[in-house]
Amino acid sequence: MKTDIALSKNRHCTLLWQKAVMLMLMLMATTTLWATDFIIDIKLIGGSKSTVQEEIQNYKDKGWKLADKDLNAGCGLSSDYIYLIYKTASDTEGIPFITDLYLSDSDTDPNLGKHDVKNPPNYFTDKYGREYVLSGYRGSSHFTSSVHGNLNSNTKGDNIYLYYTKAAFPDRRALTTIYFDDNKTGAVGKNGGSSAYDVNAGAGGDYIYMHFKTATQPEQIPEVLNINTVDDWNKFADYVNSGKTDFQDKYVRLQNNVGPVTTMVGTAEHPFRGTFYGGWYTLNVNINSAGDCAAPFSCIDGATIVRLNVTGNVTGGKHSAGLVGGCASNQKSIIEECNISANVSSTTYAGGIVGHGGHKELELEDCLFNGTISGFANYAGGLLGWCDDLKLTIKDCLFTGKFAPESGGKFHPIACKYSLSTVDATIERALYRSTTNPSEGLGDNLIPGCDGIPINYYYDFENGMDGWTLVNGTTQSGIQSKDWHTGNKGFLFEGSDKDQIIVSPELPGHGGMELYIYLHGLEGQNVAYQIGTSTTTNDLDAFNWVEAQTGQIKNWSVCCVEFRAGVKYIAIKCIGGSSPLYIDDICIKEGLYTPFDLCANDITPTAAKLTWEGNTDQYNVRYRKGPEFYENFDDSFNNNTLSWRTRNSGGNELTNWMYCYFSQMTNNLLYGHNGDIVALVGSTAKKEPYAVDNWLVSPEVTLDGTLSFWMMDVGDNPAHFEVLVSTTTNTNINNFELLAEPNHGSNPYVWTEITLDLSKYQGVKGYIAFRMKDEGKDFIAIDDITIRTNDWATTTTNEKNILLSGLQPTTTYEFQVQGVKGNQTTEWSKVANFTTLSTVADDVNGDGTVDTQDVLGIYDFMQQWNGSTPVGKYDVNHDGIVDTQDVLEVYKYIQER
């Protein structure tokens, strides 16, 4: 009969050492609080005596512990030596611990399913859903490869295998010690049963039973807490409210629609400070509290809450709200992409999304409230109920809910504040339904700059198309449940299906309008779309389309378009692109619009009457002389009169300076700033980089005033670009001096105006050069190059016309008009032009004399005139048209002179 391996030289010495250690620990425990060590891993070592001893020593050197018992003791000399070792870790290290052991009779255990009895499965799941994992094993090849850690290796006993689990038990137990003896009481059972299982069963050796000791492990709070049920939510609330953790630098994730929940998260003493990710799931609440700040999150501090839908009801005292009751005042809190449709009943200072914003910093972005706020006696805010001194940011948020105050209750659809507080507010597109106008008499309780934008028409696709129609669509495009700006639905244009259009029903008002459409595409891919308007019918032929918008829109962005009076229908066209186009939350404000139909009439050598259309009470008018030099490449290109010089080096015909239509470029990413032709240069072609030094040199110009041009970086790799000046020649590049190296490229595929000072040249003649010197950095386009020496002159009128006087004869002027109403102003209109007449009668070409050249000038204009172009100086007899009568008038003057 074999004996146990002598792992210690003297058992008596070992016992004395153990007692000494225990005494020392007891003494130290009087002054030191020790963390508990729990078992985190188990291995079985099997094989010959020497093999087992060597393996055990290797693991002990690494801190593993030995259960000092040969598990084949008494089974004969032919049996393997088998020992169990285990590794522990402190409960402060955050490592998952082993919570249970399982001895399986591989021959009869139903949990293992069908298998080779000497090659059991690596894991199985018990009836409680706990996963058990086969213990690791080391040692001889027979033990590891043939029997896979069988505790009766090389015996005729049962095929016994050890499994363990780290699954949680209700009592939060975890193993601290494993040991073996001949006592059945409390030993590990067979196949998960209660009957103690001899690990030598059937082998004829010693009676050996497995035991373990446990302790209660501290509650492990994960870095990411997942919420799937109401119980999970309540556990989350307990973590925070009891002070176990505030989740700072941790994440809480909603993984299912959950509710109804009645427990609030956070208190004034223990606010929530983590990140809560809703995943667009819905939290249904039924909160009824006698206290203040009733809300799903009663108190937060420096928290971030994103993409959460909230439904149900909240009832409480002051500062109750649909999402957050109150913000503590230590750190900035952020709420993004949350849709709150819960009904809020609060005694006062109620908020749709936040009850009290505190006095630190609060940011609301892309949020919606569409519930009802009721019961308040003093004040309520549709998004934010109340705040003290606060830095507040509200961007792209929408209130479509209702107020039901008690007698005397006042409200604002965006936010209110304490009358003596100072709020630093940054507000970008805080929208509300115009049917919910703010209460009168808010006074100092209104946050300055937080008036909000009333919208007359709102559509979010939550209830289907609702009067909108899809034209040229496919089965792929339509309303879908995806990642939407607000709510659960939106409209999706598939990028592969070009020229699809959705057309609105007839709009409720026909005044001037501002349209807000929220849209985005996929990251790194391009979209292209247009907005159209019709003042008559919804037939596609009746629509006028604004300039196409193209580019990358990876996040929700807002498209803002102004309409003049009379628009009855709008349409959105997906031109196509590599990305689908997502559309949601179409909002229309009926209000001011930018002046249009600018004209110049009654033009004389020194005066002109300017007229326009608009809908404001007052107008700012600014005018100036036209540029001394202007080039947009369109006219020169079409008339084959380009006088620019190019010098290209290091590339090929695809990288050299060229003039091209934007339609020649793929995906419509490049388009003219004003017209169709641009000047384009690059240092890469067909993915091949080229080291280029390419010059585009202007004709002779007068160097003075300011040089301005529009520039687009075509691609994601900003190129090195220079602007140079020569006052001598345009043929020798050594005569050019550097004027500027414009900063650009931060926003690819967007036109940016560059303005440079030329005043130091004091009107000398010279040349402007645009130079690209780089390698493999995409393309640059330029357009609309001007040189000016005159600033704007501005005047004001209450009429839709104004008479300008004191002008210079035979001079071209440009002008713009801006509408003003109260403290609101429109954008400046598009630029319009007119040319004053000559002081010499009928001197059409402005050369100081009247001769046949003037006759020919009128005749040429008459041949090209389309009936709508301003007639200006060519209308000699001032009858509003240019025809043969004007030619005869000048001819008669020449004959009579």
Mean pLDDT across residues? 85
Helix content: under 10%
- What is the CATH T-level topology of the largest domain? Pectate Lyase C-like
Identify the CATH class of the largest domain: Mainly Beta
Structural class by sheet pairing and helices: mainly beta
> Nearest-angstrom radius of gyration?
41 Å
Specify the CATH architecture of the largest domain: 3 Solenoid
By DSSP (H or I, 4+ residues per run), the number of helices equals: 7
Question: In terms of per-residue confidence, which ranges show pLDDT below 50 for 5 or more consecutive residues?
Answer: 1-33, 663-668
Distance between the termini: 145 Å
Number of domains: 6
What labels describe this entry?
897 residues, mainly beta, Vitelline Membrane Outer Layer Protein I, subunit A, Pectate Lyase C-like, Jelly Rolls, six-stranded antiparallel sheet, 7 helices, 39% strand, elongated, disordered N terminus
